[in-house]
Amino acid sequence: MPNSVDPVISAEKVGKHYGHFRVLQDCSFEVKNSEVVVICGPSGSGKSTLIKCLNGLEGFDEGRIVVDGVSVGDPQVNLTKLRSRVGMVFQQFELFPHLTVEGNVMLAQRRVLGRSTAEARERARMLLDRVGLLEHSAKYPKMLSGGQQQRVAIARGLAMDPKVMLFDEPTSALDPEMIGEVLDVMVNLAKAGMTMVCVTHEMGFARHVGSKVLFMDQGRIVETGAPESFFKNTQSERAQRFLKNILHPMGI
Ligand SMILES: Nc1ncnc2c1ncn2[C@@H]1O[C@H](COP(=O)(O)OP(=O)(O)OP(=O)(O)O)[C@@H](O)[C@H]1O
Ligand SMILES: [Mg+2]
C-alpha cells in the first residue's frame, strides 16, 4: 500500500520510441500529494505522450512509472482500476454524445465503481453543481458551449474520486471567452487540494497555482522549477525562446 508521504506519481527515466523516433527520453519527475505540476513546451515535444503514459493510455519502453503505488508498465496491472484513480481531461472534451450531461458523469461510476444509479446520480449532481452546470444536467453535450462541455468532462473525471487529475491542454480548443470559466474550475480544484498534472500554456494558471513547471523539448524534460523561478530565471535558451513566443507572439 502506498504511504501518505510517497509521491502520488513517480516517473523515472521514462523513454519511448515510435520505430526509430525517440518520442520520450530520460523523463523523470515526481508529483506529491496536492501538488499542481504544469507541463509546457513546443508542439511535438512529447507532452501528450508523457501524460498519457501516466494512466496507461500509451505504453513506454524504458524506465518506470508508479502512480498511487501501482507500477503502470507492469503487464499485470489492471488498467481499468488504475484509470479510475487517475482522471483525465482532454483538449476535445470526449463526452459521449448519446448521453445527457448527467449520464456522462454517471456512466463510469456505475460500470467501473459499481455504484447504484441513485448513488451515481447524487454524486453527478453534486459535481455538476460544483462546476456550475446543475441546471444543464438533462441536456446533451451538443447543446452546450465548449467551455460548458469541458466543465462536464472535469465533473466526469472527478466522479471517480480520483487520486490525481491529468489535463491535456484543456482550454486550447476553447473560444477565448470560455477559457476563464474552465480555468476557474481548475483553480478551485487546485485550491481544494487535488493533485494535478496539467499540460497547458496558460502561464497565468501556472504562476497562480502551479507547484512546479516542467519544460519539455524533443522528448526530454529540459527544465524543472517552481513557477516563480521558471518565469523569472529561465535557464535554457529553448525555454526562454518558447516563453517569449507564447507571452509575446507578435514580438510586442
Ligand atoms: N502514434 C504515433 N506514431 C508516430 N509518431 C507519433 C505518434 N504519436 C505522436 N507521435 C509523434 O511524437 C511526437 C510527440 O507528440 P506529442 O503529441 O506527445 O507532442 P505534444 O508535445 O503533445 O505536441 P502538441 O503541443 O502539438 O500537442 C510528435 O513528433 C508526434 O508527431
Ligand atoms: Mg499534445
From TrEMBL:
Compartments it resides in: Cell membrane
Gene Ontology molecular function, alphabetical: ABC-type amino acid transporter activity; ATP binding; ATP hydrolysis activity
Alphabetized InterPro entries for the sequence: AAA+_ATPase, ABC_ATPase_HisP-typ, ABC_transporter-like_ATP-bd, ABC_transporter-like_CS, MetN_ABC_transporter-like, P-loop_NTPase
All copies of domain ABC transporter, residue ranges: 9-243
Record membrane topology: Peripheral membrane protein
Cellular component annotations (GO), alphabetically ordered: plasma membrane
Keyword vocabulary terms for this entry: Amino-acid transport, ATP-binding, Cell membrane, Membrane, Nucleotide-binding, Transport
Record keyword NAD present: no
Family as reported in the entry's similarity comment: Belongs to the ABC transporter superfamily.
UniProt protein name: Glutamate/aspartate transport system ATP-binding protein
Organism name: Xaviernesmea oryzae
Phylogenetic lineage: Bacteria, Pseudomonadati, Pseudomonadota, Alphaproteobacteria, Hyphomicrobiales
